Amino acid sequence: MMLDGIASVRDLEFDGRRVFVRVDFNVPLDGSTVTDDTRIQAALPTIRAVMERGGRPVLASHLGRPKGEIVPELSLEPAGARLAELLECEVLLADDCVGDGPRKVVNDLRDGQVALLENLRFHEAERDNDEAFAKELARLAEVYVNDAFGAAHRAHASVDALPRLMRVKAAGLLMEKELGALGELVTGTPKKPYVAVLGGAKVSDKIEVIEALMTRVDALMIGGAMANTFLAAQGFDMGRSLVEDDKLPLARSLIAKAEERETELLLPTDLVVADDVEAAEGRVVAVTGVGERDMALDIGPESVKRFGESLRVAKTILWNGPMGLFENDAFAAGTAGVAEAIAAASGFTVVGGGDSVAAVRRAGMTDRFDHVSTGGGASLELLEGKALPGLVALGDG
User: Fold this and answer.
1) What CA–CA distance (Å, rounded) separates 390 from 392?
2) How many CB atoms lie within 10 A of CB 44?
3) In this structure, is residue 211 part of a structural domain?
4) In this structure, is residue 96 part of a structural domain?
5) How many domains does the chain contain in total?
6) How far is CA 174 from the centre of its chain?
7) What pLDDT, in 10s, does the model give residues 332-374?
8) Which range of residues forms the domain containing residue 259?
9) Same domain, yes or no, for 200 and 165?
10) Cis peptide bond upstream of 193, omega within 30
11) pLDDT per residue over 124-170, tens digit each?
12) How far apart are alpha carbons 9 and 174 in whole angstroms?
């Protein structure tokens, strides 16, 4: 088990102590409004668990990439306002995450209140995993809880250096849930047939996860722009489609490995093409019929059907990455079709990766999957078999 030797927040009683809870409130904003509160909602069980056990939560998160500067548009104030609505309690926003202001806020914290520190990445020291910065954060609480699975692959101060300084530390409930679901795919014995569906833009982003999955899955389906590179490696003319020319030898090598390991590798047999990513409609062509000016922007209906036939009998399914440019309705049918096939499958279904999760939410299908991960990069690194710094730090000492 990935949580062996790591305490759970459910095991602790806090007795009025301040509890530093690393959450993932890296949420999309439209001005001062949170447009998708999924990550805030996901943190609620841990925050409530801390309060029910007598703790005073001191929440900390990053938001966006302010690169060590104060960017007012990336303040966590909108996240704090939404959290207050969801928790139905007072959420006190500190003006910074270190210094006299935050110390006063947390020292004045009373039972039933929650403190939210300002964006950690307003300080470059957070990304630098600076120990002095971590010591300043450590002054704000007596206990540390990491519930930010989406940031667990980052060796940043609040994720790595800080928990190493804390005597009492634990994993939050979301962290446990993520590791329970994804960990079963990595270190457990997933039920067979085990099918992985990978999409997205670049082979280079997912080389290691493809290689890792090939040793575990029975079938591997590849869609999205990533499939273009594999099709080009097989000799198909892809017109003006996105193809990573420098990864063609790698794609050929991965195809050969799949054959050698007797892993079924399914690539699209038809595509939806257009001459512009903003086109209002596309046309379906066989992979042999991509024209000189065409761009492949989605998998076609025959491919959706073929993928669906394998998914229907799968007992374990992992999906990471969309099948096409789903943000444009003209090229969203492939992703929607695969999502529907996975949701209808009777096996254990896991969705990971920001774009595929966004596609599932857009289709209103989130509750039809067994597990929808909040972590894109973290879930990929876990599937690759890498140790997550945030998890290692929780078990250290």
Assistant:
1) 6
2) 16
3) yes
4) yes
5) 2
6) 12
7) 999 999 999 999 999 999 998 778 888 888 888 888 999 998 8
8) 189-383
9) no
10) yes
11) 999 999 999 999 999 999 999 999 999 999 999 999 999 999 999 99
12) 10
Domain co-membership, 129 together with 253:
no
Which helix (H) or strand (E) covers residue 362, if one does? helix 354-362
Shared-domain flag, residues 169 and 197: no
Please give the model's pTM, rounded to 2 decimal places: 0.89
In a shared domain, residues 262 and 144? no
Q: Which of 260, 382, 278, 247 is nearest to 320 (CA)?
A: 382
Q: What amino acid positions are annotated as catalytic residues?
A: 39, 202, 354, 377
- Name the token pair of 183: 């960990």
State the residue for tokens 């005073």. 56
Give residue 134's Cα distance to chain centre: 25
In sequence order, what DSSP letters do the residues of 238-303 get, joined into one string? -TTS---GGGHHHHHHHHHHHHHTT-EEE--SEEEEESSTT-S--EEEEGGG--TT-EEEEE-HHH
Asked if residue 131 and residue 240 are part of one domain, the reply reads: no
* C-alpha of 68 from chain center: 23
Q: Which amino acid is at 333?
A: A
In a domain, 394, yes or no: no
Place of tokens 């446990």: 176
Cβ atoms 312, 344 nearer than 8 A: yes
- How buried is residue 143: exposed, middle or buried, by Cβ count under 10 Å (0-12/13-18/19+)? buried
CATH number at residue 166: 3.40.50.1260
| 270 HSE (CA, 13 A, CB side) | 16
| Residues 205, 151 within the same domain | no
